[in-house]
Specification:
The protein is of the alpha+beta class. The protein is 27% helix and 28% strand. It has 3 helices and 6 strands; from the N terminus they run E-E-H-H-E-E-H-E-E. It has a 6-stranded antiparallel sheet, with helices on one face. Helix 1 packs antiparallel against helix 2. It is globular, with a radius of gyration of 16 Å.
Length: 151
């Protein structure tokens, strides 16, 4: 179920967010990328689309592979200068950043990719069980509000 949260309900003025809860499957990432792209365009940050779409695809793929019920929550949060994305699930298993993987393996690179393309990322345990894996991507300084470019 998609649940846009009206700006009046947000704790911080001028922040926008989008929340949805869903059961993901093998083709869900394509639909989620389309949603992410739409919000980034609406928020005036289309230059972040490729990076955010790649990173959210990796997190959704981890839910499909490692969470038995495949239920997750997705939070898109427009922040000053960028965006934060959280994918939460009910699994207490924390993701493992594999830095030593078999070159022939088709799996195990998701968090390495996340680490390479995002500005920061992490994992937060949920108090009632489960976790949220999050990442943040910042706009280039020349595109942030209040910065004047010479181009």
């Amino acid at each position: 179920m998609n649940e846009p949260i009206p700006p009046a309900m947000l704790a911080v003025p001028h922040r926008q967010q989008y929340v949805m809860h869903l059961t993901v499957g093998e083709h869900s990432a394509r639909h989620i990328r389309r949603i992410v792209r739409s919000f980034l365009l609406e928020w005036g940050m289309p230059e972040l689309s490729d990076t955010v779409e790649l990173a959210v695809t990796e997190l959704v793929a981890n839910v499909v592979r490692h969470v038995p019920n495949r239920r997750c929550g997705l939070l898109l949060l427009c922040q000053t200068g960028g965006v934060r994305v959280e994918v939460s699930d009910s699994s207490s298993q924390l993701p493992d950043l594999h830095t030593d993987f078999d070159a022939e393996s088709e799996n195990g690179r998701g968090l390495v990719i996340l680490d390479a393309v995002t500005d920061k990322w992490g994992v937060t345990r949920a108090s009632g069980g489960g976790k949220s894996v999050w990442f943040e991507c910042q706009r280039p300084p020349s595109l942030q509000a209040g910065v004047i470019s010479n181009q």
